[in-house]
Write a structure and sequence with these properties.
By secondary structure, the chain is α/β, with parallel strands linked by helices. The chain is 34% helix and 17% strand. It contains nine helices and 16 strands. It is globular and about 55 Å long.
Length: 355
């Protein structure tokens, strides 16, 4: 099998390329023209340089391709830039796929598409998607991902393609350790909203392995899968591990979710009253955005396990070691009564990566 991977040099993309290669598949990587590809691993990858938002014919990129793995998205910048990258870029890419022989696609969506206000208990693939007009109270990334899914599903249905949609939770790993679901940092204080909340975490290599499996397995055709590791690690514990293992300074302050959510709702009510609904609040103080980051729910990965036989390869503790490096072993007491400390720091484990 040969896969065309967009966003191949991004945080997730590098690991998806590596996972596909480990499973014996060919990869053609679509990257932006100015992207720097460093390391010998890229020498074995076929590279296509293109900007999905710019004019240009993408049809040749699909020559000999069996499956498209579409990861490219803008996670920073203004709402217009995010919408253009996700929606306009996806539409252009899929239009270029129409005259080709490629008939399978895997799309990277996001947990941000869900209607968090209506979900209670456990979030699954059947949970409701954020509808209009409420969608437009969400941030630019959520709006872009909802519309990206709609565009991809519409074109796939029109063309009779086999589309698989994967919705990862918060992807973490080396280079992306601090997550939006952990709270808010104010000076040396880390406010943790709902310290017992277990956010939908997925370690980047576990996530990449599911993308590779979905690309090759015909049972994934037409399905939607949530991507979470299911380790049930609390935001309080994750943040504590991050602060300790990264050497970052700061103090964790627990704030009950219900109290914080009530405060956010009160601020919005006051803003609407003072500014007649025209006031603009920071993202953290918009209730639907606050819910999407911190609402305490349970998250199921049962569908990916049952349909594709996927099991996260790395547990939480091992993922922490891979991200920050293994901690030094306790120092053994020396015969003279002083602690004997190792002279060299513990070596980091070898990472499977394309860079």
């Amino acid at each position: 099998m040969k896969a065309l991977v967009t966003g191949a040099n991004g945080f997730l993309g590098r690991h998806v390329v590596a996972a596909l290669r480990r499973r014996g598949h060919g990869v053609r990587a679509l990257v932006r023209p100015a992207s720097r590809l460093e390391g010998p691993a890229w020498d074995e990858i076929e590279i296509v340089r293109a900007d999905l938002r710019a004019p240009g014919d993408l049809t040749p990129a699909f020559d000999g391709i069996d499956v498209l793995v579409h990861l490219a998205a803008a996670v920073t910048g203004g709402e217009e830039a995010q919408l253009s990258a996700a929606v306009v870029g996806t539409e252009k890419l899929l239009e270029a796929m129409v005259p080709s022989t490629t008939r399978r696609a895997v799309l990277a969506s996001s947990f941000s598409v869900y209607d968090w206000s209506r979900i209670r208990g456990t979030l699954t693939e059947e949970s409701p998607i954020e509808p209009a007009p409420d969608l437009y109270n969400r941030d630019g990334y959520a709006i872009a991902k909802v519309w990206q899914e709609r565009v991809a599903r519409r074109i796939a249905a029109e063309q009779g393609w086999a589309l698989t949609v994967l919705r990862p939770g918060f992807i973490w790993g080396p280079g992306n350790e601090y997550l939006a679901c952990l709270g808010q940092t104010i000076g040396p204080c880390h406010l943790v909203f709902g310290p017992g909340t277990r956010p939908p975490l997925t370690y980047v290599e576990n996530c990449a392995e599911l993308f590779a499996r979905a690309a090759e397995d015909p049972r994934a055709a037409g399905e939607t899968f949530n991507v979470v590791d299911g380790h049930e690690v609390s935001a309080w514990r994750y943040l504590g591990d991050h602060l300790q293992r990264s050497g970052a300074s700061g103090v964790r302050l627990p704030i009950p979710y219900g109290l914080a959510a009530a405060g956010v709702a009160s601020v919005q009510w006051l803003s609407n009253w003072l500014f007649r609904g025209k006031g603009k609040l920071p993202s953290l103080l918009v209730p639907c955005r606050f819910e999407a980051r911190f609402k305490p729910l349970h998250y199921s990965n049962r569908k990916a396990r049952e349909v594709l036989g996927w099991e996260p390869q790395f547990g939480y503790e091992e993922s922490v070691d891979l991200t920050y490096g293994r901690p030094r072993p306790p120092a053994a007491p020396s015969p003279n009564g002083f602690d004997a400390s190792p002279s060299e720091p513990a070596a980091k484990p070898t990472m499977v990566s394309t860079q």
